[in-house]
Amino acid sequence: MSYNSTTAIQASLKKRYARERRFQWYGRLAVLTGFVFLFILLADIVSKGTPAFTQHFIRIAVNFDADKLEVSANPTEEELYAANFNGVIKQSLREMFPDVSGRKDKRALYKLISIGAEYDLRDSVLENPGLIGTKQEVWLRAHSEAGSYLKGQVDTQLDEADRRVKDNQIQWLDSLRAEGRTESRFNVIFFTAGDSREPELAGIKAALLGSAYTLLVTFFLAFPVGVLAAIYLEEFAPRNRLTDLIEININNLAAVPSIVFGLLGLAVFINFFELPRSAPLVGGMVLSLMTLPTIIITSRAAIQAVPPSIRQAALGVGASPLQTVFHHVIPVAMPGILTGSIIGMAQALGESAPLLMIGMVAFIMDVPGGVTDPSTVLPVQIFLWADSPERGFTEKTSAAIMVLMTFLIFMNALAIYLRRRFEMK
Amino acid sequence: MNTMTATMDGATDNQRESDTAEKAPLDIRDHGDVGDYETIGEPFVDNAKMSARTVNVHYGDKQAIKDVSLDIGENEVIAMIGPSGCGKSTFLRTLNRMNDIIPGCRVEGEITLDNEDIYAGNQDTVLLRARVGMVFQKPNPFPKSIYENVAYGPRIHGLAHTKAEMDGIVEKSLQRAGLFEEVKDQLDKPGTGLSGGQQQRLCIARAIAVSPEVILMDEPCSALDPIATARIEELIDELREKYTIAIVTHSMQQAARVSQRTAYFHLGKLIEVGETKEIFTNPRHQLTENYITGRFG
Predict the structure, then answer these.
(1) What is the C-alpha radius of gyration for chain B, rounded to an integer number of angstroms?
(2) pLDDT tens-digit map of B84-116
(3) A136, β-bridge pairs
(4) Measured between CA atoms, how close is A316 to chain B, in angstroms?
(5) Contact: A313, B140; criterion CB under 8 Å
(6) What torsion, rounded to 10 degrees, do the Cα atoms A18, A19, A21, A24 define?
(7) Going from the N-terminus, what domains does chain B have, and what CATH number goes with each?
(8) ipTM of the complex
(9) How far apart are the first and last CA of chain A?
């Protein structure tokens, strides 16, 4: 090599290395930016959502007087269902704070306790009828505004008119706390109840089960259909104009906005086939239409990636084409197929737009018992709660997002576990 | 063998040119086109296991094999040699219809196994491939255990009815492939974890587990080191007692060592075929000689 070219290369080397170093820094910066945003997002959600997992209870002395309850001394179940527990609670509260007078103040006092408390009380009496005629200290669920003050979420420096928890309520709550009559407990109802107008009574279970049913329907429709379509197109179908056309259309379908599938579901499944509105069955069918292209495309890619040598080896020992596919190609392609399917299912889990079209946005308090019961799903529930003005729903929104993400992590973990199992074989 | 090496080493450029001059009457226009031709040597044998008659293979518009007629004798090893793209692998694959899976591939002519046309409408490719096994260029064990690799063929064909029978087949096949002693304690380990040479012997065991009558080998040693190659060549020699073997190879030494007959292909044509000793010591066609003396290919 001549002296000239050596020096020229040496001169350019510095530049080249500098360029590489710069590029590496850009890359690091990009990764860091991504992580920072992710961290901010997660930190925000977790910090806002964590309080939703606890709930405050207030202990009051309740007089289970048969007269006050408007029942006989040995009440039947029907009598208890019609009993005036609400009045009893109100009376107990008045007894604890005898100074409170005037309708407005009394109403403020009653608002310390959740309107759901009377049902809790009824249930405990139904369970133990011996309570009638006794006086008991009972823990009752606090109203969400009172709970929010007890959680320390209310800025007392604000002008009273700008707060939903008023000065007199703060005073009562402080005295209750001083007497040890308040307690923070794990929010069980959040996981056992459906939606409610009252934040302290609202739970995620209906939406969680709705999502689970919807995804179940989606999986059982989209996975077999998608994988079989992929296997046929990749391994058996002749290559011609028709299959090319099908392939192009599948790719285009993957890019169709999801709300279009919702309109299709509304027009075809609900209006034409008259399937029930708001049901996970229809939701799952719509979402499986949306997920199918993803599953087909990723499954085809996974099948294509199986080395041809494995197919040849199988054919070489006399396996039929079907045996070759099912004994050798599919097991090798399975991790990829599963990954693709899980990506599709995760998309379906997070989808809300098409479900709004088929009525899964309705306010549903009951936990669905099957795929034809009206229900909602997690993302729609998040949307509904995010839309509600009450402070209690703000934290519920974040908590629901946490539940949704946990669901997602659980699904991904399952996918990784299945993938490992298939790779081991 | 010795003579061949002598020719290769001893021939100076001058001598080679004079050879070319002597053999000119054999009507070679150039290396690219041998024109209308007739195979030199004796393509037919008395105890043919498989025979091909005027076989033509097309890949779409491209013709890969032109008018090849060749017999493969019972219990012989026939080597197919020739430069890359000469059609030897294509020809080998027509023998168990592995070309069927290549889109656009068309086979004309007649190929028989025990006097039955393997391209006849009623011929089942599954049965054919059970009778004519294949070992590929790159070792391609299934990503399953060693045991499963060997047991797969017998299982799908229903050759074993009990676990003990299957164990017997697996052990016998591995023994015949000279692999049993090395792997007998790790039959449940994945076949892909073996060394290249062991993998190829596993593939041979897999092929013989279904008791084929013919074994096709497509450059079985090209991915292996010399020691593993020697091991496989020994094995081929042993297998000849029970099986008919057709082997495609790029190594002329290998062809000379393992085969009884050798066929030289060039641009889709079968140029010369004969006793291996004859081909390597006294090639009759200029192209054959050029190839085996290393002048091209």
Answers:
(1) 20
(2) 888 889 999 999 998 888 888 889 999 999 988
(3) A62
(4) 6
(5) yes
(6) 170
(7) 2-25+51-292 (3.40.50.300)
(8) 0.79
(9) 55
